[in-house]
Amino acid sequence: MKKINLKTLTTLFSVLVLSFVIKAQSYNTLWIPDTLRGTNFNLALKDTFAQIVTTGNQTITGGINGKIWGPTLFFNKGDSVHFNVHNYLNDSTTIHWHGMHLPAVMDGGPHQIIPPGTIWKPYWKVNNNAATYWYHPHLHEMSVDQITKGLGGLIIVRDNTESALALPRKYGVDDIPLAITDRKFTNLNQFSIAPYGDSVLVNATLRAQYNVPAQVVRFRILNAAIERSYNIGFSDNRNFSIITSDGGLLNAPVSVNRYTLHAGERIEILVSFIGQLGQSFDMKAYNTALSNSIAGGETFTTGPFGSFLNHKDFTLLHVNVVAQTTTPILTIPSSLTTNTLLSASSAVITRSLTISDSAGVTTPVILGPNAFLLNHKLFDFNYMNYTVPLNNTEIWQITSSSVFGHPFHIHDVEFNILSVNGVAPAAAQAGWKDVVFVPGRTGPTNSVVKFIAKFDDFADATHPFMFHCHIALHEDEGMMGQFVVTNTNTAIGMNEKNKDEKDFLLYPNPANDRLYISFIDPSMVAYYIRITNSVGKTIYMLPRPELSNGLDISNLSPGIYFIQLTDDKTKLTTIKKFIKE
Amino acid sequence: MKLLKTFSILSLSILLISNYFLINSFTIKKFREEIKDFNLKNTDGKYISLKDYRDAKGFIIVFTCNHCPFAKLYPQRFNELNTKYKPLGIPLIAISSTDTIMYEEDTYSRMIMKALNEKFNFPYLFDEEQLVAKNFNAQKTPHAFVIWKENEKWILKYSGAIDDNGAEPKKVQNHFVRNAIEDLLNNREIKIPETKSIGCQIYFRK
After folding, report:
1. With 90 as the cut, is the pLDDT of residue A359 above it?
2. pTM for this one?
3. Which of A129, A323, A478, A508 could form a disulfide with A378 if both were Cys (CB 3.0 to 4.6 A apart)?
4. Is B173's CB within 8 Å of A402's CB?
5. How many CB atoms lie within 10 A of CB A533?
């Protein structure tokens, strides 16, 4: 063998160092997701692939209308939005509209399972305030896998209040969406299923950089991670102004230089780059400041929860300040809105929930005997934690004896935090929220978080809403519960006279473009319709279908189909056959 | 200290490790085991079995399908592998085992069209009951296997990806299937007998 001399070694070493430096400095332009606007939305979920790692093999991904992640949906408050969610994945999934106030049957939680090949058609009237929301899979025990693939997307709601303010609103120019997560890659560039990644991905971009104009810029930041929290700040330690909590504008911008965003949470921030043309800055996660009871603050680099980003400060986005746009926003408003928060005295009940570590619990478990627990239980599809009367205003008090902090998320409502360990929420959290961070216990002292919410508009005794830890791994392991909102004023069909009255007619049959449904009992309402083909595959899932114009069956191929119609009052399901010509 | 979380980590890791070993011991067993012959319908309507190839030294068996975006990147490479290795006694056979109720694009009639349109120079077999894929433990489309004749039996020699770059064939650095065959042809130990196949999960009907 040839003897390697010092010169060769030095050359090799410098090449290695150089290649590392080049690699470390090579940024990729931040990808800005496409947009979908209007009131009719088509989402196609697919198994596909994307070139995420700059060189080498493509990564197998889940994409919505594209190669990874999904389009940003723009809603106007007050509009009715209609969806065709087509599951082309080779597995069942669900799509949950995180933060949206809507009927439970449209919510896309673990109960609204979309089988492969099926189109789910939810719709609702947008009730939410202007803010940034998101959508993501919520299939129980599969959330980590499906979110890891990249399935999800942002929702931007606009309303009159927000539109009247002089705020940056040019999407991708001075209004920049940032979905932040982290991933591990295998040696063939595939995503590893792991709670923590070693590489930051912002909008599915590794080592992202972006040009921002020398003016006030709005960043809409989502913590889309499986587990990690990000303690956000800038490399020059500048202040930035938080203008929204999860579910709406704050009363006034809150100026901070650090803000810790936990899994599932969103903030919108305003950052002034005025007079900084030609300069570059890093938006960073200052996670050395996180304790080891906050996700990402742990110090270990190996094992299932090990990561090179744990307890480190790392860059999220490199920004280069470029020329101003026409009509730039140059000031940060001093006030935004006047939130009328719920007062504690308006609550009719305080529900006491617990978060605990499961040592000593011997009930059957899914992923191991030491998952985290809500109310001392693992999630059970057949166990209803709460029945909430419609229009109830309730305080939920969460007492945590867990050693670890958990971002607690509830569906259906936006809430107001009353206190965290007896202290009123910080200004940036004193608005509408749908995720609240429940800190781990301090020594022997349990943590207590209280929030207040009004459960209005949507009652459904059949389909529940969920509450859970938004660390997807904890949720998959069973740190989740469910509740129904019921309208006690509506009699539930205990003494229905005759099953025949739940009957209906389909016409014309055979049909071509539209299939009409006529109820024998005119007061009958369809709660759910499924259309299946002759081999039993579900083609359409139609929650609370609007039937006045018939069902659009123009896309069905000719053949025999079945309609499974569930009556709203009795929840009895009747099956009828029809022929598509 | 996060003692409990550590317990959780430990139990999870034990679970993961045990799963890992399960998968591996299964695969390793497969490596020593004989591969069962099959009889599946080709896109030309004729049924094909391994025993039909009397002079074959081995086979490249690729589980693939029509619909999968990643599988769509590979037919040209299947043609090239078959062109190169069929004359050396190692023909390539492609098998589609995906669920046709779920994917109309993967039905037999569409397979015929794909084989014609993309000028497949190899058989493209329809594993309607998914039994052959189960026998091979095929996971993804595409998932390649190299099997070799030893004492009149077909023995599994390689399982995994075809190479390490789907979309950019010119940038491939590791031709896993080709390398395994070259090792076998030269009576060498296969350097990389197993990789993870990359593509769309084959969903087995219960």
Report:
1. no
2. 0.90
3. A478
4. no
5. 17
